[in-house]
Design goal:
heterodimer, A: 425 residues, mainly alpha, 2 domains, two-stranded antiparallel ribbon, 16 helices, B: 265 residues, alpha/beta, Rossmann fold, 4-stranded antiparallel sheet, 10 strands, 41% helix, globular
Chain lengths: 425, 265
């Protein structure tokens, strides 16, 4: 292990090792498209790339190749992997948004998914025939054309940020437990509103949800046709949405980093550390807290818009309290206040839920169906209450508990930036 | 000398307790003034009123002719009053340099846009801030430790970091709440020598709350004595030391007598 880390610290061998791992794991996925282990290896190679001491430009190029080219290619072999990657991207943006509110500014928000819902419903209502139920045909025809999707990406940011401020205003004086309860309530209010705003005027279509929601236009299809690349929308859409998510995650990371490493980010952290002292040092509490809520919310808003276009159908069930807790778990698991931590946390939790734990319960089920005997006990006799699928949440819970006991600061805790202060020393 | 700070009849009550009772108080520019008084005399309450943490029930205060009361703490800091705390309140999980940088918040002239664009303006401003932080850390003798976490500093250095953080907001008036608490006599005197220097270098006025009488008498141009929320004496150190009411407040008297004699307002 020590030799491996020593190897990763030297640019030459590290670069070779990383490229080899990425190449080998990609080939493994291509040859064994059903193998979970091959895909996990591919993900691990990306993590390896992050840690290895590779020259910066090369690292960026390799990251682009893996995420921008290899991943979509592998996605055409096994479409489910692309779906997982897209989900990971969505949750990375959510975790990064919540990281600003909880990790940096220290404002515990248990209703974060509300902003995701706001973004999703913003596009869902106008990108489907739904808006036609309360806006007269003479004003506009619904669904709006696919091109409007891009306008609504911006609009989703703005509307969600507005709701962030709306939540922020009443909770400005609250801290800790009290704040957590109010945000929890806010999250529920938004969900209940979505559930009940089907009368007297039908805005959200209530529990039935909204469908079909327009997807963004495949504006590049004519180009593909002239190039002679045969591609049907069923293949193109997952790739297209993956690309969009990847692009937005890139922007979100950039915005996050720039905010964090500025007087704004420092003010947020000061508020987290000591509100009274922060204000006494000239940090305007109200403005900075509202800014934190608005920024966090806007990331969720833009991903909400994408989510509704991706799913084509949304209903209030997608935005439950459990989702908020899930995103919070990603932030805490990854390391509060840490951007790489939030990204890794979101990835680990999503992959665990979508693949690893599911794979595990499928495997246990196979053992059971095959009637394998362990320690003299035939698994086929397992009562239905102990069905393997029910272990998924339990194992996830155990992982969380163990993490909090043995590594409470998270997988990749926030590192303090060392800085070179001016030259007059 | 011009008057920097003026307060008139400041009264602050907490329930039945009158923490400050009609306190009138002036501060002259580029002087060191001290507030002394027994525990619970209302010294820190006065600081909290002046920095906007408490709102007084009555009275007025002006800073360089501008009304102070009703402003938020951050607005008061922006006007040029900054403070340290009796029980150190640093940003524990941030580095020494970051603590000082937060202190400059009200002096940062960057919009959200230029932070996100991260253009030349941003880099110039950030390096200006970093230079100032380095200078201030050198001033308080922490220039060698910019990347240390604040919570890992020894006690005396934490006090000095708090001073640097307060100076970072470029105040005209610095309020120091027991800056020498927990220091040896030698350290305390070194700190006072530093304060003397700062008055000239940064054109400061300093108001101290201090229990260390030797320090107070040596460094102060003017001493104000509070007891039970009332100003009982004011003047230069020698005058105050001779005042019989001060001696009484410090050496004791029949306190129950006072309570029955003058019912609370």
């Amino acid at each position: 292990m020590n030799r491996l880390t020593a190897l990763l610290d030297r640019p030459g061998p590290a670069t070779g090792l990383v490229i080899a791992t990425i190449a080998l794991s990609s080939i493994a996925v291509a040859y064994y498209p059903r193998s979970l282990i091959a895909f996990l290896l591919f993900q691990a190679s990306i993590l390896l790339l992050y840690f290895a001491e590779v020259p910066r430009r090369l690292k960026q190029a390799l990251a682009f190749v893996t995420l921008g080219i290899l991943m979509p290619l592998l996605g055409t072999i096994n479409g489910y992997y692309l779906e997982v990657a897209t989900q990971v991207g969505i949750f990375v943006a959510l975790a990064l948004g919540l990281n600003i509110v909880v990790g940096l500014a220290g404002l515990l928000d248990l209703g974060y998914v509300a902003f995701y819902a706001v973004g999703a419903y913003t596009w869902a209502i106008f990108g489907s025939p739904q808006a036609g139920r309360f806006i007269s045909e003479s004003v506009a025809h619904f669904p709006l054309g696919g091109g409007w999707f891009f306008v609504f990406l911006i609009l989703g940011v703005i509307v969600a940020a507005g709701f962030g401020v709306l939540l922020g205003l009443p909770v400005l004086r609250l801290r800790g437990d009290y704040l957590a309860i109010v945000t929890l309530g806010f999250g529920e209010v938004i969900r209940v509103l979505a559930n009940n705003l089907d009368k007297p005027i039908n805005f959200t279509n209530g529990p039935q949800g909204i469908t079909p929601i327009s997807r963004p236009p495949l504006f590049f299809q004519p180009l593909l046709d002239t190039l002679g690349i045969p591609a049907s929308p069923t293949v193109l859409y997952p790739l297209y949405l993956y690309g969009l998510v990847l692009l937005i995650v890139g922007v979100v990371i950039l915005v996050n980093r720039r905010l964090e490493d500025s007087h704004i980010g420092r003010a947020w952290e000061a508020i987290r550390e000591d509100e009274v002292a922060a204000q006494a040092m000239g940090v305007p509490l109200v403005r900075m807290k509202l800014l934190a809520f608005a920024c966090g919310a806007s990331f969720a808003g833009v991903m909400g818009v994408i989510f509704s276009a991706k799913q084509v159908f949304i209903n209030p069930e997608s935005f439950t309290f459990l989702e908020s807790i899930g995103v919070l778990a990603m932030v805490i698991l990854g390391g509060m206040g840490s951007i790489p931590g939030a990204i890794l946390g979101a990835t680990v939790v999503t992959v665990l839920n979508l693949q690893v734990l599911k794979g595990l319960s499928l495997w246990l089920n196979e053992l059971r169906n095959a009637g394998v005997t362990i320690l003299g006990y035939n698994l086929a006799n397992l009562p239905t209450q102990l069905e393997p699928a029910k272990y998924e949440r339990m194992i996830f819970g155990i992982i969380l508990v163990l993490m909090m006991i043995y590594r409470p600061q998270g997988i990749l805790p926030a590192r303090r930036r060392s800085r070179e202060l001016g030259g007059n020393k | 000398m011009a008057t920097v700070l003026e307060t008139q009849a400041i009264t602050k009550r907490f329930g039945g307790l009158t923490a400050l009772n009609r306190v009138n108080f002036d501060l002259e520019e580029r002087k060191i003034a001290s507030i002394i008084g027994p525990n619970g005399a209302g010294k820190t309450t006065l600081f909290n009123v002046l920095t906007g943490i408490y709102r007084p029930d009555e009275g007025e205060a002006t800073f360089k002719g501008r009304p102070l009361l009703g402003l938020r703490p951050d607005q008061i800091t922006a006007l040029g009053i900054c403070r340290t705390f009796q029980n150190i309140r640093l940003f524990a999980n941030m580095t020494v340099a970051e603590n000082v940088l937060v202190g400059m918040h009200s002096r940062v002239s960057l919009s959200m846009g230029s932070v996100l664009a991260r253009g030349r303006r941003f880099h110039e401003e950030e390096s200006r801030l970093a230079d100032r932080a380095a200078t201030l850390l050198d001033v308080v003798g922490l220039g060698a430790k910019p990347n240390e976490l604040a919570k890992n500093l020894p006690y005396g250095e934490q006090r000095r970091l708090e001073l640097a953080r307060a100076l970072a907001s470029a105040p005209a008036l610095l309020l120091l709440d027991e800056p020498t608490a927990g220091m040896t006599q030698g350290e305390a005197q070194a700190l006072m020598a530093l304060l003397r220097r700062l008055i000239h270098e940064y054109e400061l006025t300093i108001l101290l709350i201090e229990h260390n009488m030797r320090v107070v008498m040596e460094v102060s141009d003017r001493v104000t004595v509070l007891d039970y929320g009332e100003k009982i004496a004011e003047g230069n150190p020698t005058e105050v030391q001779r005042d019989p009411r001060v001696i009484q407040a410090y050496l004791g008297r029949k306190r129950w007598g006072k309570i029955t004699d003058t019912p609370n307002a």
